[in-house]
Amino acid sequence: MQELAGKVAVITGAASGFGRELAILCAEADMKLVLADRNEAGMATTVEMLPSPHVPVLAVTCDVSRPQDLENLAERTWEKFGAAHLLFNNAGIAVAGPTWTTTLDEWKWVLDVNLMGVVHGIRSFVPRMLAQGGEAHVVNTASAAGLVSPKGSSVYCVSKHGVVTLSECLYHELREAESSIGVSVLCPAFVDTGIAHSDQTRPEGTAANPLSQRYAEQVRRATKAGKLSAADVARITLEGVRAGRFYILPHKAIKRAIETRMQDILEDRVPTDTTPRP
Ligand SMILES: NC(=O)c1ccc[n+]([C@@H]2O[C@H](COP(=O)([O-])OP(=O)(O)OC[C@H]3O[C@@H](n4cnc5c(N)ncnc54)[C@H](O)[C@@H]3O)[C@@H](O)[C@H]2O)c1
């Protein structure tokens, strides 16, 4: 989708990190904005940071793990703007720790937000986009962790591998339906955003992995050391949308680890540990 001006962008996870930077870039591209997040204060800050107070914007409180919240988001989007052209299924959280100490509460929380949040976004928006006709584009935020399998992050990796394969299937299905809806899957490596602190937003009463603090500290160190900023990732993402790119990998170095994983599979080897050193 090359021409963005005047079109409607819907961004989940718009209160922080990539979502906030995408909102700023889409506003600079003269798009109308629908911002969605469960963090209302953070969304208000995003609105304040937009390049002009005159950007048409709708901010909706939304928990992406709840299908009815995405349905409400779509209804409010069409009520306000009559269309949606660019959907960023971006909201996400991270929990780290070994597979066997990750609690069932954590498995449910992470999969409900990171994977089912994307599913709910697609189920509420794609049928309406198909009915509206014309060009549209869906960007699902996965992660480099959706393409490789670093140790200590199985729940996060499962959710993000799910988002990658879901995006590939969606791409094929939309081509078969001869629709003009494009798809991209965003797979960044570590970037310094709020993600390393998502532990603090756990649903009340959620049993935590006893090792999660130690692993969360490693994630915090790794994100702090990230070479690209959230603004860089947002810029590369929008360039990818304009260029019609499917896989958007802002960190090129990750391709070596992906290649190693693919060779392990094709050559019947045990998996090579490509976990980045914090
Ligand atoms: N920062 C990284 O290193 C990195 C790397 C790869 C992928 N990602 C992915 O990028 C996406 C954006 O994360 P970020 O790095 O900008 O982190 P962030 O914490 O800065 O932003 C995530 C946003 O999602 C929102 N959110 C969390 N749970 C939600 C829910 N249930 N409903 C609605 N909103 C919810 C948060 O309130 C927050 O505003 C996530 O999907 C994350 O997994 C991040």
UniProtKB/TrEMBL annotation:
SUPFAM superfamilies in the cross-refs: NAD(P)-binding Rossmann-fold domains
Keyword vocabulary terms for this entry: NADP, Oxidoreductase
Pfam family, one: adh_short
Record-linked InterPro entries: NAD(P)-bd_dom_sf (IPR036291), SDR_fam (IPR002347)
Gene Ontology terms, MF aspect: oxidoreductase activity
Transmembrane segments: none
This protein's record includes keyword Endoplasmic reticulum: no
Domain of life of the source: Bacteria
Record family assignment: Belongs to the short-chain dehydrogenases/reductases (SDR) family.
NCBIfam families in the cross-refs: PRK06194.1
Name by which UniProt lists this protein: SDR family NAD(P)-dependent oxidoreductase
Organism listed in the record: Oleomonas cavernae
